[in-house]
Batch of 2 targets.
Target 1
Amino acid sequence: MTALLSILVLVFILVAIWQMVKIFDLTQSGKLAGNNQVANDTDNKINGYLMLGFLIFIYVITIICFVQYGDLPLMSNSAAEHGPGLDNLMIISMIVIFFVQTVTQYLLHYFAYKYRGEKGKKAVFFADNNKLEAIWTIIPVIVLAGLIIQGLFTWNNIMNVSLENDPLVIELYAQQFSWKARYGGADNTLGKANVRLIDIDRANVLGLDEADPYAKDDIITTELHLPVGRPVLFKMRSQDVLHSAYMPHFRAQMNCVPGMITQFGFTPTVTTEEMRETPEMIDKVQNINKIRVKKSKALVAKGEDALERYEFDYLLLCNKICGKSHYNMQMKIVVETQKEYDAWIKEQKLFKNSLTNN
Amino acid sequence: MSAHVDTHDAHDDHGHHHKETFVTKYIFSQDHKMIAKQYLITGTIMGVIGVIMSLMMRMQIAWPEEPNVIFKALLGKWAPDGVMDADIYLALVTIHGTIMVFFVLTAGLSGTFSNLLIPLQIGARDMASGFLNMISYWLFFLSSVLMVCSFFVEAGPAAAGWTVYPPLSALPMAQGGSGAGMTLWLVSMAVFIASSLLGSLNYVVTVINLRTKGMSMTRLPLTIWAFFVTAIIGIISFPVLLSAALLLIMDRSFGTSFFLSDIFIQGEVLHYQGGSPVLFEHLFWFLGHPEVYIVLLPALGITSEIIATNSRKPIFGYRAMVASILAIAFLSTIVWGHHMFISGMNPFLGSVFTFTTLLIAIPSAVKAFNYITTLWKGNLQMNPAMLFSIGLVSTFITGGLTGIILGDSALDINVHDTYFVVAHFHLVMGISALYGMFAGIYHWFPKMFGRMLNKNLGYIHFWVTAVCAYGVFFPMHFIGMAGLPRRYYTNSNFPLFDDLANANVVISVFALVGGAFQIVFLYNLFSSIFYGKKTTQNPWRSNTMEWTAPVEHMHGNWPGEIPHVHRWAYDYSKPGHDEDFVSQITPLKEGEEELQH
């Protein structure tokens, strides 16, 4: 692959140089009087047509992208309660954008083609028109007002976490380069913690206050399990540098900032099992596995291990540059029924039992 | 308010500068035209470095962890056996961003064209202070050298992203690049800011005080308006970045806790307490967002001038164009928070910044529509500069529109820090500003060097670049919407993203082809300086004053008295005139009315 790439680059450079030299020669031998480096009618004509061609290129690449990659975007398969509202807003914005994009690019490139210069032609002296300008000031104002209002409602809806519905409180704890989750235990209340209290010898890796009674029944895990349908309130902490907890399927993201606690809340609505069985996900996973099988063949040929078969899981990714292994800082998320969740949490060690050297 | 510079000055100038040596003419020059050339050449070299870095990143993303001869040759110990190291990938991300934003598109663009055009287009003998102008360039040169030097320190250059958020940038144990590399980055930026401020002050003072007789503010070409307002934004916002850099230096070297608190790293608790990284984000983006417009406005100014000239039509809605420059400048200083929706700041602030951010779409839309209307019923001269200007309007629209999504706090949650953002800002500020710079170079090359650039090479350069720019950044929106985070050294640890690998290969191929074809431009630029066809005095038949100055450069710009200005810059194809352009220095005919603007 590398060799191919290098050859490719080399070939392009050579072609470029060859083109340059050839054209340079041609222009040097031109017999035109005056300044022949200024566009003439032929240049205007050729470039005018190319402008039209470029417009078609923009449309074609738009269509190709939608056909090829249009089903990749995480739209319409959200797994959180606020997801559909947010996705709707996204779709509305996209429709507005693509409408404006199509029309303005058309006007720009079509005018560039239509009014390409010709010797002897004179342009229209048209310097100002208040009415026109008022129109294209007011229309964006109205459209944006609508988008802003809907955006703000959606935003407030997402960010105002209500404590009335008894959300499950979970701490997301970030460090270079891994995630941990801390559950409040039976009392659903997180014990006090500070990185100054970290005691590696006693396996108090999150710096919990051992004197705090709320901390005793806390549960620290390396996998995030969420019961479906119950609101979750995440409290985020970081012990070293900035990280960002990004859960794309839940339309959730919040930075983890050392020295402060940030928060984000949502309600998961689709279990991992259910998500795996949606037609879109079956297609996507099949496609990914096809790609992996192909890749594996190449790997095996080189004497390396084949790739594992991919099965869908929700993920928590780090999405704020945090150092060398930023690209591999992830945690599996499992959304399951309340019953499965209860069974899982029962198996986890309580904080007070996880300490060593007592 | 027009200042009158009498001819006495000119004689003085002639007297003084006869004894020019090589050093005073080419190196420590105080002549704005020479300084403009110095900025252009330095900016171009930095641009080449920045682009090569981006191409290496694209190769890594498309063919992750594969040995590559280019890596081996260029990265040395950072690519053992030709496989790129994860640390150096982040360093490339960081230095590519820093170089392109500050060294190419701020200094290279503003430095070149503000210096060249401000005195020539307003009818001044030189900048208000030639000496400060010279210092400004040499500080820029020094900061460029420092920045490039950081590649040669033991632990590598800064690698915390061009935003250098602490604590990552503050703690040497968090990352190799946060040692000496980061110190060099901060010092380089501090010097750069000093350079930028000296330049900006000079531009503002010159525009206010040294306009020739008749050159009222409402007769200024839009280029000058753009440079003038850009300089003001720079003066307002760059000092804030300087303060952030100084505080970060304090935290790093003197044990203060402005941005740091409660940190446990590599088995030990650090003493820092009470600071907040979010404070740094505020300070950084108070510059960082206006910086986008510092980069973009000069490009838009250049485009306005070139589109009007080559359409042989007045720019449509001159007053609205000036008003939208002012509106963008004002709004740019109150929208920085849209980079921080999910930083942990109060969500209410997010609402406020959403509101102000989306307001910027209004003056931007006005500008785009006015450009399009300027083309309407024109007589378009498809010079390479014109092509790049039309290209700018195209990428400005495509890239700008997705700002509606990113500026909306709710939608930002899911695309923040993904490739969607990368696509957005590369199109709207990177490519657009670069097109502005190319357009400016093609248009004013004759003014700078007295020779013409080869137009056919210009056409090849434009069309390949235009196709590749879309080929790179358009599909990138989609992989961003699929949730792929940026700044990942490889995506191979996420099978979830395996179906995006193909798209990444396509993008990288476009990037490599586009990058390779910049050689055409470099060849054209450097060979035309020496062998280009000699230009006539006003090759584009333009109205603005710089084309009334002689082709051969001279101190003081005009022999004898500086011409007076009698009309605005956009009397193209005005009825009642034989030619389709009327220079600003042509007096009004009897009975002719000046358009009141």
Target 2
Amino acid sequence: MKRIALLGMPNTGKSTFFNRLTGAGARIGNWPGITVDLLSAKILLNDAMVEVVDLPGIYNMHGFSEDELVVRRFLETQPVNLFVVVLNACQLDRQLALPLQLKALGLPMLILLNMADEAKKLGIRIDTERLTQALGAPVCLLSAKFGSGFDIAKQALAEQLKLHPKLQHADKAAFQHDDSIEQELATLVSQSIATPIQMPATVTDRIDRFMLHPWLGLPLFFAIMYLAFQVIYTVGAPLQDSLDWLFGYLKDAWLAPAATHLPLGLRSFLVDGLYDGLGTVASFLPIIVIFFMVMAVVEDSGYLSRAAFLMDALMSRLGLDGRAFVMQLMGFGCNVPAILGTRVMRSQALRRLTMLVIPLSLCSARLQVFLFFISAVFAPSTAPLVLFSLYLMSFVLVFLTALIWRGRYRSHEPLMLELPPYRLPTFRFLLLEGWRSAGHFLKAAGIFIVAGVVLVWFLTHYPFEAEPASAATLAGRLADLAAPVMSPLGLDSLLSIALIFGFVAKEIVIGALAVIYGMGGDDLSRLLAQKLDWVQAYSFLLFTLIYTPCLATLSTIKQESKSWRFTLLTVFWPLLLAWVVSFLFYQGARGLGF
Amino acid sequence: MTHLDQLKPSMRGTIHALDVGKDLARRMAGLGLRPGSTIEVIRVGPFNGPMQVRVGHTDLMLRRSEAAHISVCLAV
């Protein structure tokens, strides 16, 4: 099979071209020796199957950023027929450096000058003949987004493949010597590109005057974030609820009756273990799809890097950047898509630090638990204050965690981001993005979530003769073992069992308490109010807020970090933090005589 | 001659030298920051935040800590 490697700098519309070329059939895959997933697709081009690989955007062939290492490693190990180099036609003054460097690798190239329509509007004239000569590769003008020039580009692709039917390795020696191309670049640019001396003030400049205004910028940022948040979760939550309802309905109406004849253990496994696991995975899908569609708008419109610009003064002190802040805010809805969203950060250290703090965002699942508990135990007049204090706590812990760990996860890549012109993504692209992210989540995190749910099911249901979630089950015994650790927090073993359930998904804590005490709704509220005083209750709330991320979050962290060590850190750090905070609060409050 | 972080919004100049390591210099070059390029400061982020600069047809943000290593000949 033939293979094409797609190369280019960030923000050139390389992915847009990839999407147009390959449609929805692209898959995320592993390559030997390469630590990040690469998107690739097999397409039929003139009766021949061709594999197209979308390599990460890079600024330089010889640099040492993580993306640059990935690209170099790929080109060193994988033979290809052809490089397709996508360049932004408006920025050829600097982007031509990349094909000049690639030329030295000795492989055939096709150069695509994308956003040719924008360049024309700006009055930039490009001498493609001269470029073709200088680069020794055919050059096509293209607008990948709107499709003009696409057919010609595709045809050129097919022709080049016919001319170069053999897979070849890049010239390895060329990776070593860092050729100085400064002079060559300057000559090439001055000979082939004519730019008007006075650039007209663009629409982007005018929008930025508001968006990045010294006083208006930040309020606008928070308004936009609020809007994005509302869109994601007001559209996503009902969909999530109806999926939950559907799964519950099918379970009661169909699965449970069908399984009555099975032996007790097997029936329980199927109905309460495996099936609930699948239901948990499915319930995340709507929010992930919508999240990615909204985030694609925020990112591709160019606003995400503006958000980074606005928030940087604060975030840089925490070792994070503004994009981390955006993801953390989104984490207040659900941590899972927020973790997935950290993919926009290209530095591993920065990404990991962000993934470490996101689970401390008070997500909507925890909110459900808090609302129930607070209304059960606290007076209506203090309830809002209690909830507010938990949100405040969430922010404080995020900052604290970032400050403590920023030294360990220090990014060595300085933050230099392009602020691209504002652009609207096409609807087609949004659908594709939503579809792809759902598939990605299912494929990688799905199996972990199901396995985790089954594990918790086993803990809380074995031995099968015992009452589920009672003290006689494995979970009950575990809670007894943990009693010396948990009682200084004011938490008894029944509450500990509920916390074990909460590991699956935080909102299950209430349902678990209903099972444990054998009563639900108002009865449960009254019982909790009787059993717990406010100090114990608040200690429990603090613990629930902070302790281990839920299974889905954890599975996503594992999938995105590809490191068990880091994943374990994201389990144990919050657990430790939860214990310390609850301990300090509980013992402090008791010590003060409450 | 001065350093980029000393420039105020709407001031322009020509990049004289990048006083950074080879790696960062390459990265900067990829973004268009190379000796000889004309650079203009567009604005500065809130709370003394990063700088938005324009080089050629590219707008980018960079932190003051990086800007301090770029020496610039001011345009008159």
